[in-house]
Amino acid sequence: MFLDKAKIFVKSGDGGNGCVAFRREKYVSRGGPEGGDGGKGGSVILVADNGLTTLLDFKYKRKFVAETGVDGSRSKCSGRKGEDLLVYVPVGTVVKDDATKKIIVDLANEGDQYIIAKGGRGGRGNQHFATPTRQAPEFCEPGMPGEEREIFLELKLLADVGLLGFPNVGKSTLISAVSKARPKIANYHFTTLQPNLGVVKVEGAPAFVMADIPGIIEGASEGVGLGIEFLRHIERTRILIHVVDISGIEGRDALEDFKKINKELHNYDIKLTDRPQIIAANKSDMLFDEEVFENFKAELNKMGYDKVFKISAATKLGVEDLMKEAVELLSTIPVKQLEIDESEFFVQEEKRFTYEINIVNDVYVVSGSFVDRALLSININEPDSLRYFHKVLKNKGVLNDLVEMGIQDGDVVRLNDFEFEYM
Fold it and tell me: Which residues form the Obg domain (predicted)?
């Protein structure tokens, strides 16, 4: 089964919490703080792998969560780092942010890696908060939460040559004749319902990958038939072999078919019209009037297409010359990279701990991610911890904002479930 789209959820590991501990040893009085740091959470990393050709694995598993960092412990021992989670995807996978549909990364080469969700930083133990005036801190930092997001994976096959043409013109027969690919072949339309890849070897030349792109018909760029599902796989090809049925046994006009398919390429992406094309006039073994091919070739020459071959994929007539021409043309064209406009890329916002202040029934309510994190790191029953918390509020600018909003001595400030009187 071929699957070229998938939506998955990824979450990196949370950082481990710092530890509150004090040295307790015989003959050592008033041992100082020795709480260790929490370990960093594991990251989720996407890796491009040539061994995969489909996103089928993501049909059955859609949630990927990395390991959480271990909490710190006493004796200044840091917690173990969470193990990174490697998620393997086929080469040619484009990763998009599911909410905005903007492109995060294009994994176009074997071994390409991208950290899609970075592990949370481990919290610091109380050993880091000792000062000459605060020698026994009873607080530590919690671990930072890991990142989580939904992403959309879209596979755009990496092939050197793309076969295109109307259904039942012989594309599957051609790819089976020149490679070990064995697609379904039958005498009816839409026999091929998914792209097929084959490796073509021509004597004295490097092998190349050919892709049979199915379902492209008139109106494909607007969603007619299956074409819109597979047009994306042409984007990375270096050249196109355009297969037409020159025999006319189905009552079709080869030249009109050629024009219609090129119109769909233009409508889908105008850059595809500049892709070099070799025209393969197939089923020539059933052609009884040679003038039909000669007239077809002459019309294409007028349109600027000079690489026109008369072939029969079924009998392999002219197929070898066609493949040699493809090899020669490939040698002059560099590997095609996906052209992506800068506006299509996803811009990651810098992660900040923020807060907002609202007055509710004469109570100054401070809320936000900053408040959640700050409250996790204090012990409200310990004076030194509260003094540190006051310092954090001051450094962050919360106290200044409260003054600007007109707070007076005795007014109540609420941070989640914690309240205090402003003095």
Answer: 1-158
